[in-house]
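Side project, low priority. Logging it here so it doesn't get lost.
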Amino acid sequence: MGKEANPRREGENEARATASTIRISPRKLGLVAQSIRGLSAEAALSQLTFNARRISGDVKKVLQSAIANAENNHQLDVDRLFVAEAYVGKALVMKRFSARARGRVGHIHKFFSNLTIIVREREETK
């Protein structure tokens, strides 16, 4: 009598992982996400391991989660996975202020981002 299950949003040969409210601006996170788009899963992991940006460790965790989801939940072959999509969205903005001279205010915006990574299994080539 319960509610029907949600239909699966991904295809049969792909898996997804998300991270919400990451404390970095979407613009900076988008640069790291763009650097791994289209790479094989193994190459993307090594790219993120040696990336100098602070946020690359968090992106690596999300990618590892997507790979684990593909292996454990959808029984996909890990060696044939590649990063099909990696996109960034805006989350909340914390608004703060800093007192300035003559009773004025300096606005400070602390941006948060959402990250989604979708890995897909490559087709076998003959």
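Brief comment: Residues 22 and 113 are 5 Å apart (CA to CA).
Revisit when time allows.
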